[in-house]
């Protein structure tokens, strides 16, 4: 029985399809729906990080990223509620997207994790890896990847 669904979104087309399926499943099973958006760490050289601190750029960047996260989650939550999902929670993760999703699924004891794939070519997928591949390989919860 599915009682708790976690869907990851970044507002990409594949993530939007994953959200649609998660909403449909949440309605069908009367499950709670957790929606997570992960703000990625940005790897910058130390000199640039120091410059950003001096110029208060780091704070402005963080504000913009949180604004985007809030907008994406607000839109996703509104879609879910409009479709009839009664229990919707939104969450902002930080850092490695796959790690944040896996950790959240474990903490919330999700029954299933739903996320989209980027649709990389076979070569690109082997070289770069992907968030969905990492989640599927490392998560202890059932995962559903939406193309």
CATH homologous superfamily descriptor: HUPs
- Count of individual helical segments: 6
Ends: how far apart?
24 Å
- Mean model confidence by pLDDT: 86
At the third CATH level, what is the topology name?
A: Rossmann fold
What's the count of strands?
5
Q: Which spans have pLDDT < 50 for at least 5 consecutive residues?
A: none
- Name of the CATH first level: Alpha Beta
Alpha-carbon Rg, integer? 16 Å
Strand order in the sheet with the most strands: 3-2-1-4-5
In the CATH hierarchy, what is the architecture at level 2? 3-Layer(aba) Sandwich
Number of domains: 1
Q: Please state the structural category.
A: alpha/beta
Strand content: 15-25%
What about the largest sheet? Answer: 5 strands, parallel
The global form is globular
Helix and strand pattern: EHEHHEHEHHE
Helix content: 40-55%
Structure, explained:
This protein is of the alpha/beta class and 147 residues long. The chain has a single domain, classed as Rossmann fold, CATH 3.40.50. It has helices at residues 13-29, 46-54, 57-82, 97-108, 122-128, 131-138; strands spanning 4-8, 32-39, 88-94, 112-116, 142-146. A five-stranded parallel sheet has the order 3-2-1-4-5, sandwiched between helices. Helix 4 (97-108) runs parallel beside helix 6 (131-138). The longest helix is centred in the middle third of the chain and has 26 residues, at 57-82. The two termini are 24 Å apart. 27% of the residues are buried.
Structural features:
147 residues, alpha/beta, Rossmann fold
Blueprint (SSEs and pairs):
Blueprint: E1 4-8, H1 13-29, E2 32-39, H2 46-54, H3 57-82, E3 88-94, H4 97-108, E4 112-116, H5 122-128, H6 131-138, E5 142-146
Parallel strand pairs: 1-2, 1-4, 2-3, 4-5
Helix pairs in contact: 4-6
């Amino acid at each position: 029985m599915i009682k708790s669904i976690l869907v990851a979104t970044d507002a990409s087309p594949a993530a939007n399809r994953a959200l649609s399926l998660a909403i449909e499943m949440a309605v069908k099973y009367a499950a709670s729906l957790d929606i997570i958006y992960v703000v990625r760490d940005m790897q910058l050289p130390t000199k640039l990080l120091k410059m950003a601190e001096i110029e208060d750029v780091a704070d402005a960047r963080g504000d913009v990223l949180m604004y985007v996260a809030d907008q994406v989650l607000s839109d996703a939550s509104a879609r879910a509620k409009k479709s009839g999902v009664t229990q919707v929670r939104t969450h902002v993760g930080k850092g490695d997207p796959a790690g944040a999703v896996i950790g959240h699924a474990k903490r919330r004891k999700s029954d299933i994790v739903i996320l989209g794939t980027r649709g990389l070519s076979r070569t690109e997928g082997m070289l770069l890896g992907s968030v969905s591949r990492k989640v599927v390989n490392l998560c202890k919860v059932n995962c559903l990847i939406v193309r």
